[in-house]
Design the sequence.
């Protein structure tokens, strides 16, 4: 397996936006008995999430985060040479949402803009792509916009996913500075497990129809969803993650030659509390150095790692810090990164 290495590039500013609408998971009992809800919520550790109002898209959350970042850091929009948008809930099937955001943000026509349509590992993949492109000294500043409105794609009548997912968006500014030192990425994929987390209908393999939109009981437990709503095989995902993710983390740490004391913070994808605690204990990580937002934002897919950094590590990234980042999920796709931060400015959280 390849390990990608970059030098002199890093995140200099970060901003996050969440919807103002709060969902109390313990009160999310329209379709399930209260006792069943309590058991699920306590197991996954997600007590509150944020849902967008009707008409709000992931691009709107990213736009609000980007405007906050640009204004707080007095950035000249003409200096932004690259914009990528990471999401599996874009505005349209075409055109690419990144192109629309280039216009909405008032960026120059010379801005390189494209979408990355990965799920939970998307931020680390996107960060690796941007770091690689920023090694070209013709680029001054890059803007990563990562947003998801997962509340729109999972059935509230399917208890396997109804209590997990929330909405959020982030903006990250990437610049060149030799003081960052080296960053390392391990990126992995296993498409043979693609059916573990899937929306089967609505694409071009199974186009939208009355049949794909029809809600139906899908198992012996009475869970209900349509083919255009997300499905997740939780037990098989768990079995996959607990084998592959710790192995990948160990491999990258050994490659770089670090010990635990060299890592200031470890930030996991916020899948659920049970999985993250299991991985941390298996690797014997210091729990005091593992920030978490799962309890208040839920699983926001690819947004969860930068959202957790923005929410929990604000004012903790002064000087030089080394972060271990680990993401895993839909694909199956998983990634590990060891990334230096230096005097990263984190804006106050925006609500939309």
Sequence:
């Amino acid at each position: 397996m390849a390990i990608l290495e970059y030098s002199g590039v890093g995140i200099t500013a970060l901003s996050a936006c969440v919807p103002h609408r709060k969902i109390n998971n313990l009160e999310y009992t329209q379709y399930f008995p209260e006792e069943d809800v309590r058991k699920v919520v306590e197991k996954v550790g997600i007590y509150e999430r944020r849902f967008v109002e009707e008409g709000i898209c992931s691009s709107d959350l990213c736009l609000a985060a980007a405007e906050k970042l640009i204004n707080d850091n007095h950035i000249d929009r003409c200096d932004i040479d690259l914009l990528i948008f990471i999401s599996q809930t874009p505005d349209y099937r075409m055109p690419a949402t990144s192109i629309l955001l280039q216009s909405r943000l008032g960026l120059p026509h010379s801005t390189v803009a494209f979408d990355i349509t990965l799920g939970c590992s998307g931020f680390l993949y996107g960060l690796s792509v941007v770091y690689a492109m920023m090694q070209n000294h013709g680029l001054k500043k890059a803007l990563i916009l990562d947003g998801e409105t997962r509340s729109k794609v999972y059935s509230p009548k399917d208890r396997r996913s109804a209590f997990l997912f929330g909405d959020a968006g982030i903006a990250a500014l990437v610049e060149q500075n030799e003081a960052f030192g080296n960053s390392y990425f391990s990126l992995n994929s296993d498409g043979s497990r693609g059916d573990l987390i899937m929306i089967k209908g609505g694409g071009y393999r199974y186009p939208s129809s009355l049949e794909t939109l029809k809600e139906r009981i899908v198992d012996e437990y009475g869970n209900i969803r349509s083919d255009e709503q997300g499905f997740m095989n939780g037990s098989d995902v768990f079995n996959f993650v607990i084998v592959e993710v710790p192995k990948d983390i160990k491999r990258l740490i050994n490659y770089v030659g670090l010990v635990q004391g060299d890592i200031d913070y470890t930030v996991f994808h916020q899948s659920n509390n049970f999985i993250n605690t299991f991985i941390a204990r298996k690797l014997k990580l210091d729990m005091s150095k593992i920030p978490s937002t799962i309890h208040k934002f839920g699983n926001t897919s690819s947004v969860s790692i930068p959202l957790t950094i923005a929410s929990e590590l604000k004012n903790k990234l002064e000087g030089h810090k080394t972060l271990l980042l680990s993401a895993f999920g839909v694909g199956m796709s998983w990634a590990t990164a060891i990334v230096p931060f230096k005097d990263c400015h984190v804006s106050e959280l925006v609500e939309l």
